[in-house]
Amino acid sequence: MSDTKTWPRAVLFDLDGTLVDSLPDIHAALNQTLESLGEPPFTLEAVGRMVGQGVQVLIGRAYQALDKEIDPHTRDSIAERYLAIYSARATELTTLNAGATDAVRILAERGITLGIVTNKPGAETADILRHFGLAEQMAVVVGGDAGPRKKPAPDLLIHACREIGIEPAEALFVGDSENDVEAAQAAGMPVVAMRGGYTATGVEGLGADLVLNRLDEIPDRLAELGPRSP
């Protein structure tokens, strides 16, 4: 474990609801998918409560909300249809969240390694990072299709840390949902939760080490955090 004076060696970010507001594109793509199958649309708020654990879970939750049974094979087939629609429009309505560019710039200038750990598939994640000019600053990008279990399991976070050669306690994770907080805590990693993200419960009750409004607050608040005790 690194000394607190040199902590953190890395800051890892969730993507959807944390660095970017991608919900409008997810909402549009899901409704287009459902329309192609003869199903009714959902509101933006309803879709916001469905996201967070990958595409298959999104589709499963949509059909649960429609009060319809769906077998795994059909769910996966619909997920593929959704991804084809979403991939073509992944940056159409998506915007950076407040302070994202400055947070990334300042942390990088301090020599802190940066990365992304998301349940979103890797290809779409890469497209969004390139679109907003953030790809080059990221030393590691781990998508939900990387192989390890998705958040809220800690596996993707642990995988990212191995990729950059550090221990989880040497990194800070920044997310917006219960999946992010649970994954970070299970990995032994301090976690910041951002307000305004995609969570079914209030962000204040997630148990994060720190709750913030804007991403560019992070550099000046690092002193309030530190490695978790073993």
Description:
There is one protein chain. By secondary structure, this protein is α/β, with parallel strands linked by helices. Helices cover 39% and strands 12% of the residues. It has a six-stranded parallel sheet with strand order 5-4-1-6-7-8, sandwiched between helices. Strands 2-3 form a two-stranded antiparallel ribbon. β4, α6 (122-131) and β5 (140-142) form a beta-alpha-beta unit. The longest helix has 16 residues, at 72-87.
Concise synopsis of the structure shown:
The chain is an alpha/beta fold and 230 residues long.
> Strand order across the biggest sheet?
5-4-1-6-7-8
Strand fraction band?
5-15%
Nearest-integer average pLDDT: 93
Under CATH, the topology of the largest domain can be stated as: Rossmann fold
